Amino acid sequence: MIKKITNKDKEDWKNFLDNKQKKSHNFSKKKKNIKNHDKDKEDWENFLKNDEKIRNKDFIYKRNIRQEKIKKIDLHGYTIEEANIAMEHFIQKCFDENVTKIIVITGKGLRSKSVDNPYLSKDLSILKYSVPEFIESNKNLTRFIIETTDAKIEDGGSGAFYIYLKNKNKF
């Protein structure tokens, strides 16, 4: 039984031969690269002999990059008024020190005594809700702030939040 060669077989054979030619061409290129290697080695030796000093790029201060500076404040045990005053002073101080991020730990409010008081709002009497509300409504503070976001679990989760401050030098 004689089998006819199909067009697919012809195409595969042609691709095989083309690839074989490309590989033999690459091998000749490698021989040329050996000459370049000798040149590179010579350049390297000349570089080592040169007494010219080269600056270490790791020690160059980059002015465009703002170094991350983080501070924390823990408001456990504060009353709402004390917490608001403390936050106002702390944010101003951090902005003056060019801090980039503030971690504010308020707690979750599970042990808050104000929950039992029927005359107080349940949400706004807990620091977790009242402090961010105070910050967002205070125009003196909002001009320093880029944004406030919820904290990651390792920084306090639902009992904390982040405040990202603007760059003092660009203010």
Q: Which labels suit this protein?
A:
Ribosomal Protein S8, Chain: A, domain 1, 44% helix, 171 residues, four-stranded mixed sheet, alpha+beta
Can you give me a brief rundown of this structure?
The protein is of the alpha+beta class. It is 44% helix and 13% strand.
Structure description:
It is a single chain. The protein is an alpha+beta fold and 171 residues long. It has 2 domains: 48 residues; 101 residues, 2-Layer Sandwich (Ribosomal Protein S8, Chain: A, domain 1). The chain has 4 helices and 4 strands, in the order H-E-H-E-H-H-E-E. Strands 1-2-4-3 form a 4-stranded mixed β-sheet, with helices on one face. Strand 1, helix 2 and strand 2 form a beta-alpha-beta unit. Helix 2 crosses helix 3. The protein is elongated. The N and C termini lie far apart (88 Å). 12% of the residues are buried.
The percent of residues in helical segments reads 40-55%
| Largest sheet composition | 4 strands, mixed
Shape: elongated
Radius of gyration based on Cα positions: 34 Å
- Named at the architecture level, the CATH assignment of the largest domain is 2-Layer Sandwich
β-strand number = 4
What CATH calls the topology of the largest domain is Ribosomal Protein S8, Chain: A, domain 1
Number of distinct helices: 4
Distance between the termini: 88 Å
Query: Beta-strand level of the residues, as a percent range?
Result: 5-15%
Order of helices and strands: HEHEHHEE
In which order are the strands of the major sheet placed?
1-2-4-3
Overall pLDDT level: 79
CATH classification class of the largest domain: Alpha Beta
Low-confidence stretches: 118-123
Structural class: alpha+beta
Number of domains: 2
